[in-house]
Amino acid sequence: MQLSLLNQLRDQNPVILNISNFVTVQDVANGLNSLGASPIMSEEIAEADALVQMSGAVALNLGAFTKQQLAHIQKTGELANKYHKPLIVDPVAIGAVAYRREVAEQLFQQFQVDIIRGNAGEIAALAGMDWQAKGIDAGEGDGDKVTIAQAAANQHHCVVILSGPTDIITDGTRVVQVKNGTPLFQLHVGSGDMLSSIVAAFAAVSGGDYFAAAQTACLVFASAGELVASELPAELPGTFAMKLIDELHLVTVAEVERVARFA
Amino acid sequence: MQLSLLNQLRDQNPVILNISNFVTVQDVANGLNSLGASPIMSEEIAEADALVQMSGAVALNLGAFTKQQLAHIQKTGELANKYHKPLIVDPVAIGAVAYRREVAEQLFQQFQVDIIRGNAGEIAALAGMDWQAKGIDAGEGDGDKVTIAQAAANQHHCVVILSGPTDIITDGTRVVQVKNGTPLFQLHVGSGDMLSSIVAAFAAVSGGDYFAAAQTACLVFASAGELVASELPAELPGTFAMKLIDELHLVTVAEVERVARFA
Amino acid sequence: MQLSLLNQLRDQNPVILNISNFVTVQDVANGLNSLGASPIMSEEIAEADALVQMSGAVALNLGAFTKQQLAHIQKTGELANKYHKPLIVDPVAIGAVAYRREVAEQLFQQFQVDIIRGNAGEIAALAGMDWQAKGIDAGEGDGDKVTIAQAAANQHHCVVILSGPTDIITDGTRVVQVKNGTPLFQLHVGSGDMLSSIVAAFAAVSGGDYFAAAQTACLVFASAGELVASELPAELPGTFAMKLIDELHLVTVAEVERVARFA
Fold first, then answer.
1. Contacts of C135 in chain A (CB under 8 A)
2. Which positions does UniProt annotate for ATP binding (chains A, B, C) (predicted)?
3. Whole-angstrom Cα distance, residue A90 to residue C205?
4. Does A53 have pLDDT greater than 90?
5. Which of A97, A127, B106, B147 keeps 20 to 30 A from A207, CA to CA?
6. Could you tell me the domains of chain C?
7. Chain C contacts of A54, Cβ < 8 Å?
8. ipTM score here?
């Protein structure tokens, strides 16, 4: 676990380009900004080349898009490869919606992704394994999540984050499990989207070690949420979302180390 | 008033498909999620069939859209009818903008809506009655709001919610008035959009009794807002919005019963 | 400084039409609403004529748009000129992205803007002066900011607001500097977008004195932020964003006068 990446992120303030989910875009931008990165969002392919070049990493969210936006997403992914920028993809709801899975599979043939972040239903769909996803939620399945994540990583030749109550991070061989967190993440729409873009911010300062970037991002994010939840008098999803933005700005390496639970 | 629907909603966690207003989409998603439903948003017609099939109800918000999105809205409404899913429409600003009224009238000829939720200016426009709407706000008029709501319900053969300081719910004949609430709802953009999608969530678990679903949704939402407002030391629109998300998660049938004022 | 404009704004509750940045649109709508204006957002050119006519001012945000939306932005600007509505433009990231600068320059040839609000990187780009902008952030440069703002104002024959730790407001000749504020504005994505639309709200009630409207809007907004920040126990970007919405509703002329620092 390279927690020093958190300080590097704040020192370097990397520009993170997001093709974002319109549902959660402001929350993602504020999460990146609070943590110490510089978010930029775009919907226009004509500026894709310039924006990718100025960015430290690229996060593509497949959460909600039109066919027109698909060309933009594809081009941005190709440019990330061309300019050797870390490329993170969040395949929202591909476990529940066949159209989204088809689109994702076509996209993954156009560019090489470095890190994929999804819930169990989404990662199972990537791995071609059985799972009962439910809309944007993980749903339920019998498969072993570590096996599912490893299969997806091996098929896509990248690091995979299967996030949930326990986050599983794997490069196909090595596996780290982050056990921090809080159920309040599931009660706030956009927690997963925010994590995906935060993973991109860590990747931007990781010197190419995406396995380290992925696990550190998960640990920092999960610990920040856990720290916020531990101070709340009840399950307060609105207050949690606000204080998570506060905590992403304030949380220190020492605080994360104090609560960290991973294996 | 079937307040047991609140518990059924939380037990069943219905997927609610929203064609949403981009202005308020995250707030609506979080409101649904906090209350106990599972929101999904979409902008792509290619996935409309799959998403409608997996949903418990469909909420169409006419708040802000392009001509391209209209085809998506129309298709989604038709599919809701085809698959017998409760269909809720929020006709934002049709009282103030002639183009929006024309679009809404064309849409209402393409599918049969089950519940319409709007403010006085919007419902008066639907009923073809005089009213001075103001932008997204209700504006002012002399007509009797109960008569306006009943006329709109009879013309559109559906349940109508005319929301405001007092919510009027009618199927054209029967009328229920929910008197709970707080002026802070008017100070937060998106309160109406959130109510419309929450009405869809109640409709999803109502077994087809949309009159019951509409009035219960209004009572729960208005009571949650009133409970939040009663704890605030001043008119704080930002704090209200955050705590409303908290309260939608926490509010119980017993608490609603304690403050409920309706007739 | 015409602080009485704040009371006029609340009395008149002007409709403000926004072609908005999808990243920050809900925050902008809520800021306008809390302050006392009536926001309306649109993405559809077919309703542009009606919406401009019913508005007290028009705010165009160039923050994130597609080519299709450009036609809408251009038409709305032309209509604002035609109907003599105050026209405010926020040229987001034109200092960092050549495509955005080209688009902005083309737009400025199609209509006459009344007030431009941007950060140092954006205003330097408008003035054709050297500056190292960074994504959506101001970046760094050696030029004198007052000179830059005056040059941009003279070139575009309008009032220019160069906002930052000190806001510089100029009509090309006269200069006012507002020294209130807090670093928390930079930690919340959308602070600049919100200020631009609030400038439009003040312009709507200014009787055509856009230099007065611009400086008063800056002073009210910066003072509201400073008042909120002074009550926070730490740098809390999430809490700040929420309480800023509260304060825009509550802040009085007397409170602004008490903390005002400008020259």
1. 15, 38-40, 54
2. 117, 163
3. 45
4. yes
5. A127
6. 4-259 (3.40.1190.20)
7. 96-97, 135
8. 0.93
